[in-house]
Write a structure and sequence with these properties.
- The chain has about 325 residues and is α/β, with parallel strands linked by helices.
- Helices cover about 45% and strands about 20% of the residues.
- The chain has 12 helices and 12 strands.
- Strands 1, 2, 3, 4, 5, 8, 9, 10, 11 and 12 form a 10-stranded mixed sheet that branches. Strands 6-7 form a two-stranded antiparallel sheet.
- Strand 2, helix 2 and strand 3 form a beta-alpha-beta unit.
Length: about 325
Amino acid sequence: MTGKVVLIGPQGTTPDIGAVLAEHGVRGPVALVRAGYQERESEDAEMIAWLGVPAVNLGLHRRSVEVFRDDPEFTTAYQARQQRLRHMQTFYRVRLEKIDDAARTVSVRYVEPELLDQEEKVSVDQFRHIDADHIDRCDALRAAFELQWRHAERPVVARHRAQVADALSTVDALVIAGGHVASLLNRLALFDVLELAQGKPVFAWAAGAMVLTERIVLFHDYPPYGSDIAQVLDAGFKLAPGFVLLPDPRRRVNLEARAGIQRFARRMAPATCIAMDHGDRLVFDHGELIRASAARLTTTGEVERSWSGSPSRFSTPYMRGMME
């Protein structure tokens, strides 16, 4: 199991990943994952300059293109799996939007507060059930695919995996950037990068941080089109257990919408919802949170803007009733 995992806020006009690496004693070369940038993966000069140390780009997106080119039988099966996952995501979202419409309608009815609280709990329970079912079905599909195809044993995958292992053996840490979260998740899984990086500290931000949690949750309170309902995409790699991450909240989360925050935090409970802004940190050691500086979205709808602590399965009255 990977030891130290450091999740940081977005890297925009004032990137601080170099300072974070220095703070944690990383002086030597690092391995860089930019698979989330897809075709722009190799355009890494600026990002490597941010790091302040030598870096080797693992080229996971490029490697996946070569796998899909050189192993057509596996590629056909892989693409069919991905298509099925996309259909499942679409159908899950249809069901999710119906629950969300009902929850919003119920929440504005003029009835006694006690009844409204009960109905809110029903709505949250429905969200939680459909989220959990979606994760279970995605897990089952991926497990069945792996059982049949054993991707690590495919010759072309094995060759690239060995090359990634060689590269990782020469570095002091693994750095995972953001970009397209599904592409990043799939390429890290295809080449078993986190398995190969065991013992190396891992540093990640944006989508890179999201894929290290238990559940990857897509969110945007100000979408350019479509509904603003948050949706679970898939299970993550579970290196940062007990948390749901919302990177770049200033652009993507309405932190003044108390009712929405309350429902979202209750829906994700017992996981702790963290809005990761620039300069924020979550530091884990073998899966245990040892340091935190970030904003926590609470099950009562507040934003605890200078939260520092452990996930601790927060015991609000609502949570106590739900967990009994």
